[in-house]
Structure formats: C-alpha cells, structure tokens
Amino acid sequence: MTRATLDKKPHEVAAMFDDVAARYDLTNDVLSLGQARLWRRAVADAVDARPGERVLDLAAGTATSSLPFVEAGAFTVPCDFSLGMLREGKQRHPWMPFTAGDATRLPFADGAFDAVTLSFGLRNVSDVDAALAELHRVTKPGGRVLVCEFSHPTWTPLRTVYSEYLMRALPPIARRVSSSPDAYVYLAESIREWPDQPGLAARLQDAGWARVAWRNLTGGIVALHRGFKPRS
C-alpha cells in the first residue's frame, strides 16, 4: 500500500505494519525529531489511569504506549491487528496480555474497560466511525476515551513547513532508518488526508461520546481528543 486511499484494506495495512515492527519505535523517534516520547507522556497524563482500572490500548503495536498505564497500576490490554507488531511486543514484554483484534470488531465484552485509548492508529482503520462505536461499546458507563492522532497545525506558517516536511523530507529520512520506507510514504499521505480537530470531535460525538474536547500538541501537529461515555 503506497496511497492513503479512503478504502483502506485491513490486511494490507496490517502487512505494512508487520514489515516495520522491528524498528518502528526507533523510526518514530527519529522522524518525529524526538517529539513522539513527549506525545506518549501527554497521552498517559490525559488518560490518568488508576490502580485497579482496566485500560484498553488499541493500536498498541509493541506496547510502548501501554507501559505508562501498567506503571500506574492499571490492568492494561495492548491490542493490535498487526501480528508482526504483537510478536515484537511479546518478545520485549512477555508478561503483557497482547491481544489481536480489529478495531471495527473488538474481541471484548460490552463495558469491559474503564478507559480506552488509541494513539496514531485511528487514521489507518478502514471504518473510523465503526471503530469509535466499538470503543464506546467496550467502555463502562462513565468511562473515557482518549484518541491521540496527527492533526492540522493551527498556525499557517507551521502548517506549510509541516506539509513540506511530510512529503519531501520524511521519505528520504525513512529510507535511512526504516526497514520499509514505502510504509512511511503511505503514513505521510494518510496524515494529510485526516480531518481536522473539529472534524474528529464531531465524529466522536456521533459515536455516542459526550463532553468531547481536544488539546493541541506541538502547535496542532498532534491533537488529543477526549470524551466520556454517558452513565445513562
């Protein structure tokens, strides 16, 4: 897959992530100029996992994003549809309950989790609205969702520079550090095709989430969207 089409085929996207699993975390740190670690910390703070809670980390990859929830004392389930990512994660953290799952058909019971989170994976789902509805289904009433995703810089000069970086600088860098540089061409295109902050907020509301709000990181290059499942 090399084009960010709207009819993403799950098996193709999963295969793409299988190919980059071994060096995925390192590549992200390089391509984000070190910002990826700050974004993960912001996600952990926003989720605010607590001891005894159950947290679903969807699109968890190798579970790098899951570790802060575990450290907070929450029972955390890293879930991903890339078996390559899950295998890599299991080698690193054999004690974690890695689970294979499609975001549009999650293998969990209704109301199973206190919090659900999805970082940098929603734009790769074939049916975004179905995924948001599934996250709503598996969350307890009163529970929360946190979506961290690339978004649209709010300052025009930054937006211009960022767009140039995505399509001109990112692919050559990816060729140096990634095992599958074509995957990062797709990822760059998928970022450009993604809706802006209000657009994603509206889709969360349509899926049943209440009190939806967002916070921009790095000038809006990334946005954190949070919502709550009504108690009744």
Automatic annotation (TrEMBL):
Principal EC category: transferase
One Pfam match: Ubie_methyltran
Record-linked CDD domains: AdoMet_MTases (cd02440)
GO molecular function: demethylmenaquinone methyltransferase activity
Binding site for S-adenosyl-L-methionine: 62, 80, 102-103, 119
Xref: InterPro entries: SAM-dependent_MTases_sf, UbiE/COQ5_MeTrFase, UbiE/COQ5_MeTrFase_CS
Keywords linked to the UniProt accession: Menaquinone biosynthesis, Methyltransferase, S-adenosyl-L-methionine, Transferase
EC number of this enzyme: 2.1.1.163
Reactions it catalyzes: a 2-demethylmenaquinol + S-adenosyl-L-methionine = a menaquinol + S-adenosyl-L-homocysteine + H(+)
Pathway this chain belongs to: Quinol/quinone metabolism; menaquinone biosynthesis; menaquinol from 1,4-dihydroxy-2-naphthoate: step 2/2
Keyword Membrane: no
Biological process according to GO: menaquinone biosynthetic process; methylation
The family this protein is said to belong to: Belongs to the class I-like SAM-binding methyltransferase superfamily. MenG/UbiE family.
HAMAP family: MenG_UbiE_methyltr
Function: Methyltransferase required for the conversion of demethylmenaquinol (DMKH2) to menaquinol (MKH2).
Protein name per UniProt: Demethylmenaquinone methyltransferase
Species annotation: Streptomyces reniochalinae
Gene: menG
